[in-house]
Amino acid sequence: MASRTPEEPGPEPDARTARRRRFAAAAREERPDLSLLCLLVAAEADPGLDEAGLDAAQIELDRLAGLLPYHPAGGPGAWARNLAELLGTRCGFGGSPADYRRLESSLLHEVLRRRRGLPILLSVVWMEVARRAGAPVYGVALPGHFVVGFGDPAGAHVLADPFAGGRLLTDEDAALLVAGATGGQLTRPMTAPADPLEIVLRVLNNIRAWAEARPEQSAVQLWALDLALLLPRRPARLRLERAQLLVRRGEFLEGAAELTEYAEVVAAVDRAGAEAIRRQAAAARAMLN
């Protein structure tokens, strides 16, 4: 799967528009295809990821699934151990602190190629491989550290950490992950299955955070916001973030127009907040004088 660095020129506008329409349509399917959505996210960063590349990534997930035994004896624990042995041990999928500094760690095709990534992308690999093999698998969006679950979320189940090569997690282990990330306690809602669109939004949030810490990567932050805004469910504040980013990028008129539009929405519930946003819009227009 050949890749291109994020600094290289982006795709032609028509190709980008078509890809984003495909992303929006896939997000509105009754059963969204998580791997396809993650690959379409990756294609925004890597213009070299064409249709053949998308197919190659899906074929690799199929190939890995074919290496798993079908319905192993031993229930959820057996599935988790088999995935850990295949993906964590034999194939070397895992992560380290250095992976948080790389955009590639949030791009599914690169994670499949490098076998390194963030917890959530490694979990996507695990879920997609396990799902293809018939496993009862689901994602678990613990605060600060995504993991996977096998079995019945309300009954017999086990959790595994793909970032650690598939280490099985006790309740105490999961509680320590939450405490380390938030200082709070593990609660039952935290271990509920995450739906595909929640996962994709979290992937995009990670990309936005990566780019926000690197002002020279504002174009990456912008496309991550654009994709997030195509999801049927997303925080309204993303519109404000996009408008403010446009202003920071020097696109003053477009940013001011979006700030004004957002202020009209906010005015119905927060008049003072709306007025503050209008002042931001006026300041952006003044930058052209």
UniProtKB/TrEMBL annotation:
Q: Where is this region: Disordered?
A: 1-26
What's a Pfam family in this record? Transglut_core2
**Record domain Protein SirB1 N-terminal: where:** 78-205
Fetch the InterPro entries from UniProt. SirB1_N
The family this protein is said to belong to: Belongs to the UPF0162 family.
Q: What is this protein called?
A: Transglutaminase family protein
